[in-house]
């Protein structure tokens, strides 16, 4: 597989390393640090782009990929308010995209567990539900997009929870219809996400802890290999249907 990397910060460098480990070819790296720009992709032959950049750049890039019939694994987060616009780009294009809130296979399995558990716990009103995440001290957004998608799974399936609260509740108690989601930033913690179902009798916890970013890089490469012969629009759940 011939891969073009867009974005060359920590994740882009890991993509480069693991691409070589898997005997794929890197045909170009698009990043200001490499003095390259997206238009350079028109002059190289590649199968799939893997992009870890920033939301503002990603939106502009996706339009460019659509116009030029390119295939991309979009691992940049934070652009999802424009998802319907991005979908429309595909309607008359020969390109393909695969995107996810998180490219760890194991985080996606964690979401499946949270969704299934929420469906069950919807029937047991004695249990309150809440969630917390830990991230390293370089993490810019809080809550993360991983936690945001986690709360989407909960709200979709637990009827008694209707409102998200992410701020510290220092002046009032939590309301019964509120789902409290909290975040801690510190140290070098890669990612930890936990969902709790708690009653006066016991606590049920579903937890995912990442020890390294390498899995995110590896699964984005595996996703690219899956995408290279496809066209149109895909989410991580489409990829997972074939491997889980």
Structural features, described:
- This protein is α/β, with parallel strands linked by helices.
- It has two domains: 2-99 and 214-241, NAD(P)-binding Rossmann-like Domain (Rossmann fold), CATH 3.40.50; 105-210, Dihydrodipicolinate Reductase, domain 2, CATH 3.30.360.10.
- The chain contains seven helices and eleven strands.
- Strands 2-1-3-4-5-11 form a six-stranded parallel β-sheet, sandwiched between helices. A five-stranded mixed β-sheet has the order 7-8-6-9-10, covered by helices on one side.
- Strand 9 and strand 10 (203-210) form a beta hairpin.
- Helix 1 (10-21) packs across helix 6 (214-227) and helix 4 (105-121) runs parallel beside helix 5 (145-157).
- It is elongated and about 65 Å long.
What is the element layout, followed by pairings?
Elements: E1 2-6, H1 10-21, E2 25-30, E3 48-51, H2 55-67, E4 71-74, H3 83-90, E5 96-99, H4 105-121, E6 128-135, H5 145-157, E7 163-165, E8 178-185, E9 191-198, E10 203-210, H6 214-227, E11 232-235, H7 236-241
Parallel strand pairs: 1-2, 1-3, 3-4, 4-5, 5-11, 6-8, 7-8
Antiparallel strand pairs: 6-9, 9-10
Question: What best-fitting shape do the alpha-carbon axes yield?
Answer: elongated
Rounded to the nearest angstrom, the distance between the terminal CA atoms is 23 Å
Q: Proportion of β residues? A: 25-35%
State the low-pLDDT regions, or none.
none
Number of helices, counting only DSSP H or I runs of 4 residues or more: 7
Enumerate the strands of the largest sheet in spatial order, edge to edge or round the barrel: 2-1-3-4-5-11
Alpha-carbon Rg, integer: 19 Å
- The total domain count is 2
The CATH superfamily of the largest domain is identified as NAD(P)-binding Rossmann-like Domain
- What oligomeric assembly is this protein in? single chain
CATH topology group of the largest domain? Rossmann fold
What's the CATH architecture name of the largest domain?
3-Layer(aba) Sandwich
- Biggest beta sheet attributes: 6 strands, parallel
SS class: alpha/beta
Strand-and-helix sequence, N→C?
EHEEHEHEHEHEEEEHEH
How many strands? 11
What is the top-level CATH class of the largest domain? Alpha Beta
Helix content: 25-40%
Overall residue-averaged pLDDT value: 90
């Amino acid at each position: 597989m011939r891969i073009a990397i867009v974005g060359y910060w920590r994740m882009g460098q890991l993509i480069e390393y693991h691409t070589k480990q898997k005997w794929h070819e890197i045909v170009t790296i698009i990043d200001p640090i490499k003095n390259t720009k997206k238009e350079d992709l028109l002059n190289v032959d590649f199968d799939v782009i893997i992009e870890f950049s920033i939301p503002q750049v990603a939106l502009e890039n996706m339009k460019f990929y659509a116009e030029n019939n390119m295939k991309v694994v979009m691992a940049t987060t934070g652009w999802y308010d424009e998802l319907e616009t991005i979908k429309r780009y595909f309607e008359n294009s020969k390109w393909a995209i695969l995107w996810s809130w998180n490219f760890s296979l194991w985080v996606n399995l964690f979401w499946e567990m949270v969704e299934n558990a929420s469906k069950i716990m919807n029937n047991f009103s004695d249990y309150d539900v809440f969630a917390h995440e830990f991230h390293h001290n370089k993490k810019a957004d809080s809550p993360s997009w991983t936690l945001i998608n986690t709360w989407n799974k909960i709200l979709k399936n637990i009827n008694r929870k209707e409102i998200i609260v992410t701020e510290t509740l220092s002046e009032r108690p939590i309301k019964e219809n509120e789902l409290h989601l909290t975040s801690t930033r510190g140290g070098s913690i890669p990612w930890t996400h936990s969902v709790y179902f708690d009653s006066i009798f016991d606590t049920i916890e579903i937890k995912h802890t990442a020890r390294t970013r390498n899995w995110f890089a590896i699964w984005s490469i595996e996703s690219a290999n899956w995408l290279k012969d496809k066209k149109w629009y895909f989410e991580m759940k489409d990829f997972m249907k074939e491997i889980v």
